[in-house]
Amino acid sequence: WRRVGGSFVLEPPQGVRSKAIVHFLGGAFVGAAPHLSYKYMLEEMSSKGLVVVTTPFELEFNYVDVCAKLLRRSEEAVEEVRGKFPSLPVHAVGHSCGALLQMILSTMFAEEWKRDSLVLVSWNNKPAKDSIPQVRGDLIERIADGTNEFTPYPPDLNDFLQSSYSIRKTLIVSFSDDTLDESDIVEVRKRR
């Protein structure tokens, strides 16, 4: 792994042809160190010819602010990798909260966040009390300004994404035993 700007980049091993660029965003809390939290999966992707860019983020209640920071933090790495591999497609891959952020970036920041496809793994957009119940008391109630919900509010964000979603190539991955997964909501949008 090598650090480029606010991201980490892993190129395929010597002798393995590069096939595509993957920009990966992890889940809510493990997304702060995706190159470590998802190490084995990302290194396996790289060994198969994918150039991996992953950008850490800290979860905040304002998803638009998180996305704006992700855009700035990832810009240098994505530009460098695109410059080195100009003919390769760039695929956005996200897990859980990272999948939601990829979707927001691909709609609200579409001009700057150009990706050839989206891979959404265990996508969810639940209210804060439902998505982070195990830390609700510790995290939410410590917020000095009284913020206790994500913005845009999940139902409002769902409506926006439904009306703005235009990504032609989308792969939705879900697991039967994942209680936070709401991928079925994305599947319905994708068909419209």
Silhouette = globular
| Estimated helix fraction | 25-40%
Adjacency order of strands in the biggest sheet = 1-2-4-3-5-6-7
Measured between the Cα atoms of the first and last residue, the distance is 40 Å
> What fraction of residues sit in β-strands?
15-25%
Radius of gyration: 16 Å
The chain-level mean pLDDT equals: 81
CATH superfamily: Alpha/Beta hydrolase fold, catalytic domain
**What fold name goes in the CATH topology slot?**
Rossmann fold
What's the structural domain tally? Answer: 1
What structural class do helix, strand and pairing data support?
alpha/beta
Order of helices and strands: EEEHHEHEHEHHHEH
Protein described:
InterPro entries: AB_hydrolase_fold (IPR029058), DUF1350 (IPR010765). This protein has 8 helices and 7 strands; from the N terminus they run βββααβαβαβαααβα. By secondary structure, the chain is an alpha/beta fold. The chain has one domain (2-179): Alpha/Beta hydrolase fold, catalytic domain (Rossmann fold, 3-Layer(aba) Sandwich), CATH 3.40.50.1820. A 7-stranded mixed β-sheet has the order 1-2-4-3-5-6-7, with helices on both faces. α3 (63-84) crosses α4 (97-108). The protein is globular, with a radius of gyration of 16 Å.
